[in-house]
Amino acid sequence: MSRTMSSTPRSDTSQAWAGGLTAFAAVLLFIAGILDFFRGIMAIANDDVYLSTPNYVFKFDLTSWGWIQLVLGVIAMAVSVGLFTRATWARVVGVGIAALLIIANFLSIPYYPFWSLTLIALYAFVIWALCVVRRED
C-alpha cells in the first residue's frame, strides 16, 4: 500500500517533467527554425552578408545554401508544432531534423561563425530534451 501511494506522485511528477522538457524542445526548435529561416532568406536575397572563405574545404553556392537553410527551418518550425501536441512522430522527426541542422550549421561555420555555433548549441539542447524523456505507456 505504501508503495502504491509513493508511485502515484512519482508518475505525476515524471509526466510533468516530460511535458516540460517536450515543451522546452518545441520552443527551442521553433526559435532555432525561425533563425534558420531568416538566415536562409538572407543568403537568398543578398549573399554579400556572409563572409567569403576561398580556401574552405566545403564550398557551396550561398544562394543554394540559403534555400537549404530556409527549407530546413520551415520543417523545424512545422515539427515544433507537432511537439506541442506531444505527438510521437514529432519527437522522432524532431531529433532527426535537429541532427540535420547541426550538420548544416557545422558546414556553414566559416560563413557565419557566431550564429552557426549558437544554433548548434540550440539544436543540441533540442536533441537532449527529446531523447531524455521516456515515453509513458
From TrEMBL:
The keyword Transmembrane helix applies. Residues 22-135 form the DUF7144 domain. InterPro entries: DUF7144 (IPR055568). Keywords: Membrane, Transmembrane, Transmembrane helix. The chain crosses the membrane at residues 21-45, 65-84, 89-108, 114-133. This is DUF7144 domain-containing protein. It comes from Streptomyces longwoodensis.
